[in-house]
Design goal:
Layout (H helix, E strand, L loop, with lengths): L2 H22 L5 H20 L7 H26 L11 H19 L3 H11 L4 H8 L3 H21 L1
Length: 163
C-alpha cells in the first residue's frame, strides 16, 4: 500500500469508527461498529487499488460506512421480524390453549399501542398487499408506506421484548 493512502486511511479511521458507533449506539452493537468501520476501510483500499478515482477519501468512507450500517441494521431487523412465529402451534392440552390465548392477547395489546393509521398499513401488508397497492389505497407515497410499516414492526418488537 502506498504511504499516502495509508496515511489517509489512518486519518479517516477515527471518523468512520465514530460514525458507525453513532449509527449502532441504540442497538448496543459496539463490536459490530468496529467490524463495519474495518469493512469500510477495506472497501476504500480495494477501490483505490483497483484504480477508482476518489476525490475525497473522507466523503467516500463516510458514505460507505453509512450504507454498511443501514444494511447491517436492516439484516438484524429482518432477522428479528422473521423470528416472530406466524402462528402458535396448537396442542390439546389446557395449558397450551391458555398460553396461545395469552400470546394472542399480548400481540393484540402491542398492536393497540400503534397509531390507527400505521396499524392499518401493517394489517394491509400482512394481508398480502404489495407496497404499491397499499400506497394506491391509502394515497400515501410508497416510501412513506414502507418506512411506516418498518417502524411499526420495530415498535411491536420493542413492546413484545418488554413483556
Amino acid at each position: 500500500m502506498d504511504k499516502t493512502l495509508e496515511t489517509e486511511l489512518a486519518a479517516v479511521r477515527p471518523k468512520v469508527l465514530s460514525l458507525a458507533r453513532k449509527f449502532l449506539r441504540s442497538s448496543g452493537l459496539r463490536m459490530e461498529a468496529e467490524d463495519i468501520a474495518q469493512e469500510a476501510l477495506v472497501r476504500l483500499w480495494t477501490a483505490c487499488r483497483d484504480g477508482a478515482e476518489i476525490r475525497s477519501v473522507e466523503a467516500w468512507a463516510t458514505t460507505v460506512t453509512k450504507n454498511l450500517c443501514v444494511t447491517h441494521l436492516r439484516k438484524l431487523s429482518n432477522r428479528a421480524v422473521s423470528s416472530i412465529p406466524e402462528s402458535i402451534p396448537s396442542q390439546d392440552t389446557a395449558s397450551s390453549a391458555i398460553e396461545t390465548e395469552d400470546n394472542h392477547r399480548i400481540v393484540a395489546a402491542a398492536l393497540n399501542q400503534i397509531p390507527p393509521g400505521t396499524r392499518q398499513l401493517l394489517q394491509l401488508r400482512t394481508a398480502g398487499m404489495s407496497l404499491d397497492e397499499i400506497a394506491a389505497v391509502t394515497g400515501r407515497p410508497k416510501g412513506s408506506v414502507k418506512s411506516s410499516i418498518s417502524a411499526a414492526r420495530k415498535q411491536i418488537l420493542k413492546i413484545l421484548n418488554e413483556v
